[in-house]
């Protein structure tokens, strides 16, 4: 869990901690939706944002960290506030609902996977995280690539299908099937599975 004395911003231990902690990853939802195909995915992302917001509340109440993992959109000098300001330059219900809080971690990624060329792979062990909940967009690109890298690092995965979205529904379903069948990820929606039940299943199976 996060240190109890943390009050003003994200922090992490100097040394890696034992596993068992959970982190909620919110991927690419700080987004201007100004790319080709944005008109298809933005309404689905807005629906996913509602489910993510509810899940986030549960995660925070349990004392687990929230980690934003966001594309830099080709702006190599970007940082959190600049990306948020850019996304909110016009009406944007997705980013407006999911603006990061001061205590959240924020990782900027240059490619599809949240692990590629980022410090996510350093941060998570310092938080004692061995269980990841992946949410955001797009199911068949950044979620899929991040899940694959997480799977190769032995993270237990829950990718609730109601918290992710893709431009094409069939491609989103295809990606979820791959993550479920090839990576052992749980993909049940948050309406069918609670954080507590997922944790209990992992504990019963002896999965840290």
Topology, please?
Layout: E1 21-27, H1 38-61, E2 66-71, H2 80-87, H3 93-97, E3 105-109, H4 120-126, E4 129-137, H5 139-152, E5 156-158, E6 164-165, H6 169-183, H7 195-204
Parallel strand pairs: 1-2, 1-4, 2-3, 4-5, 4-6
Helix pairs in contact: 5-6
Number of H/I helices: 7
Rounded mean pLDDT score: 91
Oligomer: single chain
Amino-to-carboxy terminus distance = 14 Å
Largest sheet: 6 strands, parallel
State the helicity in percent bands: 25-40%
**Overall body shape:** globular
Commentary on this structure:
This protein is of the alpha/beta class and 208 residues long. The protein contains seven helices and six strands, in the order E-H-E-H-H-E-H-E-H-E-E-H-H. Strands 1, 2, 3, 4, 5 and 6 form a six-stranded parallel beta sheet that branches.
Comma- or semicolon-separated keywords:
208 residues, alpha/beta, 6-stranded parallel sheet, disordered N terminus
Summarize the structure.
With 208 residues, the chain is α/β, with parallel strands linked by helices. It contains seven helices and six strands.
């Amino acid at each position: 869990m996060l240190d109890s004395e943390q009050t003003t911003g994200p922090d992490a231990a100097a040394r890696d901690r034992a596993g068992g902690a959970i982190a909620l990853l919110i991927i690419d939802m700080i987004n201007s939706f100004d790319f080709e195909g944005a008109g298809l995915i933005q309404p689905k992302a807005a629906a996913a944002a509602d489910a993510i917001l509810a899940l986030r509340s549960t995660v925070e109440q349990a004392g687990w960290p929230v980690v934003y993992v966001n594309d830099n959109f080709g702006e190599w000098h970007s940082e959190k506030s600049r990306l948020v300001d850019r996304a909110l330059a016009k009406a944007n219900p997705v980013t407006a609902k999911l603006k990061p809080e001061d205590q959240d971690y924020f990782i900027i990624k240059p490619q599809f996977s949240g692990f590629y060329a980022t410090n996510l792979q350093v941060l998570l062990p310092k938080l004692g995280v061995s269980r990841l909940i992946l949410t955001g967009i797009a199911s068949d690109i950044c979620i899929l690539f991040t899940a694959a890298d997480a799977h190769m690092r032995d993270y237990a995965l829950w990718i609730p299908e109601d918290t992710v979205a893709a431009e094409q529904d069939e491609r989103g379903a295809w990606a979820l099937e791959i993550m479920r069948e090839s990576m052992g990820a749980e993909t049940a929606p948050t309406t069918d599975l609670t954080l507590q039940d997922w944790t209990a299943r992992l504990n019963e199976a002896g999965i840290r």
